[in-house]
Prior knowledge:
Blueprint (H helix, E strand, L loop, with lengths): L7 H7 L2 H7 L19 E5 L5 E4 L3 E2 L7 E2 L8 E6 L6 E6 L5 E6 L9 E4 L4 E5 L2
Antiparallel strand pairs: 1-2, 1-9, 3-4, 4-8, 5-6, 6-7, 7-8
Pfam families: SelR
Protein name: Peptide methionine sulfoxide reductase MsrB
Organism: Acidobacterium capsulatum (strain ATCC 51196 / DSM 11244 / BCRC 80197 / JCM 7670 / NBRC 15755 / NCIMB 13165 / 161)
Amino acid sequence: MDKIQKSDAEWREELTPEQYYILRQKGTEPAFTGALYRNHDSGAYHCAACGALLFKSDTKFESGSGWPSFWNPAENAAVEAHEDNSHGMRRIEVTCARCGGHLGHVFPDGPRPTGLRYCINSASLRFEKEK
C-alpha cells in the first residue's frame, strides 16, 4: 500500500474541522454522538481522509462504548497500532496504515474470534453501503 503524505495545510483544506481534529490531531468525538455509531447497514468502512478500506460491517458489533466497534480490520495491514500513554492512560492507538490518520484505540475486551475491540471515531470513517 502506497503511503499518502500531505502537508498540514492540505489536510486542513480537505477535511472538515471535526475530521481534522480527530484524524490529524488525535482527537475523540463524544461518546454516543457519531453518525456511524448505530449504523447496522451492510457495507465497508473507509478512511475519511484517504479512502483506504479499514473495516467491514460483518465485524462490527455493539460494544456499549459509544463508538463504532469492530473485532477485526478488513485486513491486518489496513491499520497500524502504536503505544499511547497520553492522558495518564496506557492504550494502543490505531491509525490508518495508508495516511497515518488517527482512528481510535484497540482494547483486549472484544468478542471472539479475536477478543479485540477496535473502538473507532465515526468522523474518521466514511461508510459505503453494500449494493
